[in-house]
């Protein structure tokens, strides 16, 4: 979006300014120039029919014979229908299965007899220029159509609405380039790549017997095809390719496409680390690791990176797309999307079965998430782990889900490396021209089982009988090249022998290889680092802003342009903001957030906020986007600031995909504060895979730091189980090795500082914030101007609002989040002058040191209570109990243990009944304060912690 007011999306619409149709419509739809029935409608157009009839009659010399005219017209119509049906359904008879096990017979409606041409192969019909012919014999027409659409490549494209896109693909299959042709040098290069792929797998199998590698055996045609993506991509403007793929063939791609040194991979196979020993980290299995490199084709350098991935299939997809979007922004490539290309390599079962695939396809035309088209390469093994296609999906092809975004699909026989390479070349051309997703579905097979130690004949004996006797790809292709006279009969063996010699040398070199550098703080990450010790992550960072900047931001956030008619309620909100800046008092959560965003932008950072309804905010609190009430044009105040860039997007209704996208964006750009906001905190449930596999563990597994921020509304206000809890306990369970930061903040200024701290530190850690709901407008949850300026900073612990002498405190109630204000109000109403309430604003890394200092000053302390709104088996209790006990011991309160006050254990995180919620809340507050109606009235001194709460 940038620092401009974008009402629509020129990058998709192809033009600037407002467009016809509703303001809420996608500018891509409806497409212009759509011919829903395609060429058949064109063929049946009255004018076209008159031309066809006249031409047919004149050719027959019977311009006035009604019967001849009728017959000629009928022939022409039926011939054009045949052409259309081949364009729609010809792929169903394409020669795709290398094993020949599938039924790929010509469908009935593609046969001449079905169209009334039985026995009329020599009959000439008028087709009006289709397939480059005016007149053509019926038999010749059928032969031409079968050659175009039923060869080693089958094309699905007639579901595409855009006429220009269809015609582009038609010309590639029906025009002069219909024959897949490569130069002799190109053919030899393809053969050499296939041989490298095969011999690499064979070498690993020999040297590391029984070791899992998830080899590419049976699908080696992918190697020259991916090299074609690099070559032809570079020729068409691509300067960076970002890959994502799962296990199968990954090691082969790392070595033979990405150029990762063979000795490094052999070192890892022998149990060695991919990084220096002093770097730390847990590491990961070798077929999860990524890398980056540069390759040069035809004098053009292309930078490539393969994103690390977990075992969870397709989880890497949105990460690749998010990283691509970030790199496009860095390269100023968001309008044309020409320089950075995402390539996702899928398995057939996963492409059809994993919902994240559709979520990512859905991004392809959405503002803020569009990457100008992704090339999807499906390694179609024709089997899952042990599951046959009829049990894995309901659609004919695994790629059918891509039709939902009108992506063209190229089905191709994996035993023909030229055909696969041609498909990739065409995919690059299409993507670069139209900026749209395209799918290559390469039909191949797994020569071994799911992994090399698996026995596939348990479940697919007939398939593996066929595979056992099936020749390798290089054998089939080399024999063809010998027949064509391109190579002699020994060329394949020479290529194999030379490559094996190279591998043997690398194998020996691996024995003494030691990594000397960790690849994680280069490029845009230069200047950042890993914290030297855990304490580094806890120290205060200067996050206050100057008076001048503070006042300037106040004007930006409250000034309404003269040509903007705002909603009257927004007007009242802005009046309240002006009062905050005028008086220096009463700053609320949304204003503190806007100040943090605006100050970072002014200092040159980027800010990207996305989520479900993030522009306005789920609770109508943010109003980052102002909508004119007369014509709906948009005004975004923070985009008016200089230096940096502010973006806010209402995302698709996806958690898994969008969170993964934002993680990928933050992976590429540490200089942008990237935030994902859930509509309600528990919606993060739908993204748990991304949280577990990437956010919590990505740094320790792959040495990939990330500064993504998760904003998760959390707090018990009687809104039921799904709208109360962001599942704080799940995040705390994931905390270890200083991996993430988890906060439950109650003070607007503290929110301001933690957001600024996220960018001001010399390192990046994911930040999880339990954001409030009722506190957004709570009269006690306010901050003063001085809390944003001067010497102010983020406070991990917030002391009581009431000034109680430390030596007078007998009961200390520790808590986190909204419940603090309930406790303070009840305590003050009851007149308790020896009870202090202290908030833990940052739960991890736990502020044990400052808490111990605070406890040490409470010399007459008798008991410590941990109070939470969540049920006992949820929330922070099980995490903080031992942490508080350690702080008590460090403070000299030996033997004292914290006691729990809160809801009982529960299977559901909250009740949905308002009265029950209110009673539970009253009881837990009373219990924490020791009031008589709380069910736990008696004070138990230092032994009270041993009593059951």
From TrEMBL:
<feature type="region of interest" description="Disordered">
    <location>
        <begin position="1"/>
        <end position="30"/>
    </location>
</feature>
<dbReference type="GO" id="GO:0006096">
    <property type="term" value="P:glycolytic process"/>
</dbReference>
<dbReference type="GO" id="GO:0030976">
    <property type="term" value="F:thiamine pyrophosphate binding"/>
</dbReference>
<dbReference type="Pfam" id="PF16870">
    <property type="entry name" value="OxoGdeHyase_C"/>
</dbReference>
<dbReference type="InterPro" id="IPR011603">
    <property type="entry name" value="2oxoglutarate_DH_E1"/>
</dbReference>
<dbReference type="Pfam" id="PF02779">
    <property type="entry name" value="Transket_pyr"/>
</dbReference>
<dbReference type="GO" id="GO:0006099">
    <property type="term" value="P:tricarboxylic acid cycle"/>
</dbReference>
<dbReference type="InterPro" id="IPR031717">
    <property type="entry name" value="ODO-1/KGD_C"/>
</dbReference>
<protein>
    <recommendedName>
        <fullName>2-oxoglutarate dehydrogenase E1 component</fullName>
        <ecNumber>1.2.4.2</ecNumber>
    </recommendedName>
</protein>
<dbReference type="InterPro" id="IPR001017">
    <property type="entry name" value="DH_E1"/>
</dbReference>
<dbReference type="GO" id="GO:0005829">
    <property type="term" value="C:cytosol"/>
</dbReference>
<dbReference type="GO" id="GO:0045252">
    <property type="term" value="C:oxoglutarate dehydrogenase complex"/>
</dbReference>
<dbReference type="InterPro" id="IPR029061">
    <property type="entry name" value="THDP-binding"/>
</dbReference>
<dbReference type="GO" id="GO:0004591">
    <property type="term" value="F:oxoglutarate dehydrogenase (succinyl-transferring) activity"/>
</dbReference>
<dbReference type="InterPro" id="IPR005475">
    <property type="entry name" value="Transketolase-like_Pyr-bd"/>
</dbReference>
<comment type="function">
    <text>E1 component of the 2-oxoglutarate dehydrogenase (OGDH) complex which catalyzes the decarboxylation of 2-oxoglutarate, the first step in the conversion of 2-oxoglutarate to succinyl-CoA and CO(2).</text>
</comment>
<dbReference type="InterPro" id="IPR042179">
    <property type="entry name" value="KGD_C_sf"/>
</dbReference>
<feature type="domain" description="Transketolase-like pyrimidine-binding">
    <location>
        <begin position="587"/>
        <end position="778"/>
    </location>
</feature>
<keyword id="KW-0324">Glycolysis</keyword>
<keyword id="KW-0786">Thiamine pyrophosphate</keyword>
<comment type="subunit">
    <text>Homodimer. Part of the 2-oxoglutarate dehydrogenase (OGDH) complex composed of E1 (2-oxoglutarate dehydrogenase), E2 (dihydrolipoamide succinyltransferase) and E3 (dihydrolipoamide dehydrogenase); the complex contains multiple copies of the three enzymatic components (E1, E2 and E3).</text>
</comment>
<keyword id="KW-0560">Oxidoreductase</keyword>
<dbReference type="Pfam" id="PF00676">
    <property type="entry name" value="E1_dh"/>
</dbReference>
């Amino acid at each position: 979006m940038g620092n401009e007011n974008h009402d629509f999306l020129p990058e998709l619409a192809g033009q600037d300014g407002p467009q016809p149709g509703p303001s809420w419509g996608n500018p891509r739809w409806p497409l212009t120039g759509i011919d829903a029935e395609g060429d058949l409608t064109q063929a049946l157009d009255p004018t076209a029919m008159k031309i066809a009839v006249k031409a047919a009659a004149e050719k027959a010399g019977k311009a006035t014979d009604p019967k001849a005219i009728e017959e000629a017209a009928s022939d022409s119509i039926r011939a054009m229908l045949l052409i259309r049906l081949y364009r729609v359904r010809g792929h169903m008879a394409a020669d795709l299965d290398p094993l020949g096990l599938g039924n790929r017979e010509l469908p009935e409606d593609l046969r001449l007899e079905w169209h009334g041409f039985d026995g009329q192969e020599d009959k000439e019909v008028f087709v009006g220029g289709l397939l480059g012919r005016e007149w053509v014999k019926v038999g010749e027409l059928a032969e031409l159509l079968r050659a175009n659409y039923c060869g080693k490549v089958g094309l699905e494209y007639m579901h595409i609405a855009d006429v220009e896109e269809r015609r582009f693909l038609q010309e590639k299959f029906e025009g002069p380039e219909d024959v897949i042709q490569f130069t002799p040098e190109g053919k030899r290069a393809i053969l050499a790549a296939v041989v490298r792929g095969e011999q690499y797998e064979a070498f690993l199998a020999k040297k590391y017997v029984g070791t899992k590698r998830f080899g590419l055996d049976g699908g080696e045609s992918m190697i020259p095809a991916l090299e074609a993506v690099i070559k032809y991509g570079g020729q068409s403007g691509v300067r960076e390719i970002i890959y994502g793929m799962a296990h199968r063939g990954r090691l082969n791609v790392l070595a033979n496409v990405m150029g990762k040194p063979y000795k490094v991979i052999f070192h890892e196979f022998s149990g060695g680390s991919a990084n220096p020993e002093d770097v730390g980290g847990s590491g990961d299995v070798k077929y999860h690791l990524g890398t980056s490199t540069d390759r040069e084709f035809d004098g053009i350098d292309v930078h490539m990176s393969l994103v690390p991935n977990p075992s969870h299939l397709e989880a890497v997809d949105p990460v690749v797309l998010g990283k691509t979007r970030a790199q496009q922004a860095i390269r100023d490539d968001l309008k044309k999307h020409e320089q950075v290309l995402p390539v996702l390599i899928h398995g057939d079962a996963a492409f059809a079965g994993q919902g994240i695939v559709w979520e990512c396809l859905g991004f392809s035309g959405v503002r803020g998430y569009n990457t100008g088209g992704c090339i999807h390469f499906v390694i179609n093994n024709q089997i899952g782990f042990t599951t046959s296609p009829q049990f894995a999906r309901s659609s004919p092809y695994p790629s059918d889900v891509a039709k939902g975004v009108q992506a063209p699909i190229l089905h191709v026989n994996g035993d023909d490396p030229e055909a696969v390479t041609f498909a990739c070349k065409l995919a690059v051309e299409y993507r670069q021209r139209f900026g749209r997703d395209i799918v290559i579905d390469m039909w191949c097979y797994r020569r071994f089982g799911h992994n090399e130690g698996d026995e596939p004949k348990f479940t697919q004996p007939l398939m593996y009988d066929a595979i056992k006797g099936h020749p390798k790809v290089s054998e089939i292709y080399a024999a063809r090249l010998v027949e064509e006279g391109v190579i002699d009969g020994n060329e394949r063996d020479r290529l194999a022998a030379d490559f094996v010699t190279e591998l043997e040398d690398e194998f020996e070199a691996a024995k003494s290889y030691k990594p000397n550098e960790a690849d994680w703080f280069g490029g845009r990450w230069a200047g950042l680092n890993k914290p030297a010790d855990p304490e580094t992550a806890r120290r205060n960072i200067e996050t206050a802003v100057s008076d001048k900047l503070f006042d300037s931001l106040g004007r930006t956030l409250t000034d309404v342009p003269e040509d903007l008619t705002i909603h009257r309620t927004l007007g009242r909100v802005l009046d309240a903001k002006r009062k905050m800046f005028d008086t220096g008092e009463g700053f609320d959560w949304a204003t503190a957030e806007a100040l943090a965003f605006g100050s970072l932008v002014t200092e040159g950072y980027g800010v990207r906020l996305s989520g479900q309804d993030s522009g306005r905010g789920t609770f109508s609190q943010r109003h980052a986007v102002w909508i004119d009430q007369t014509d709906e044009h948009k005004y975004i105040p923070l985009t008016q600031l200089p230096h940096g860039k502010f973006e806010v997007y209402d995302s698709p209704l996806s958690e898994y995909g969008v969170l993964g996208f934002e993680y990928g964006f933050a992976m590429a750009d540490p200089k942008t504060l990237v935030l994902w906001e859930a509509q309600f905190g528990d919606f993060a449930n739908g993204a748990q895979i991304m949280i577990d596999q990437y956010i919590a563990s990505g740094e320790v597994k792959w040495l990939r730091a990330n500064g993504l921020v998760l904003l998760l509304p959390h707090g018990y206000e009687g809104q039921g189980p799904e709208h109360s809890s962001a599942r704080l306990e799940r995040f705390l369970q994931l905390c270890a090795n200083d991996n993430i930061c988890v906060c439950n903040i109650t003070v607007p200024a503290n929110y301001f500082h933690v957001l600024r701290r996220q960018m001001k530190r010399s390192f990046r850690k994911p930040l999880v914030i339990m954001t409030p709901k009722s506190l957004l407008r709570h009269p006690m949850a306010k901050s003063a101007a001085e809390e944003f300026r001067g010497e102010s900073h983020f406070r991990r612990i917030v002391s009581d609002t009431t000034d109680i002498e430390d030596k007078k405190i007998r009961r200390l109630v520790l808590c986190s989040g909204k419940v603090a204000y309930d406790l303070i109000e009840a305590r003050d109403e009851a007149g308790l002058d020896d009870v202090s309430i202290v908030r833990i604003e940052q739960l991890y890394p736990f502020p044990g040191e400052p808490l111990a200092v605070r406890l040490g000053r409470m010399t007459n302390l008798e008991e410590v209570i941990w109070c939470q709104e969540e049920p006992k088996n949820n929330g922070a209790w099980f995490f903080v109990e031992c942490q508080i006990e350690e702080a008590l011991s460090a403070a000299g309160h030996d033997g004292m243990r914290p006691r729990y006050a809160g809801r009982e254990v529960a299977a559901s995180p909250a009740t949905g009944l308002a009265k029950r919620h209110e009673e539970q809340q009253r009881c837990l507050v009373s219990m924490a304060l020791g009031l008589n109606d709380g069910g736990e009235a008696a004070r138990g001194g230092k032994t009270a912690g041993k009593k059951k709460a």
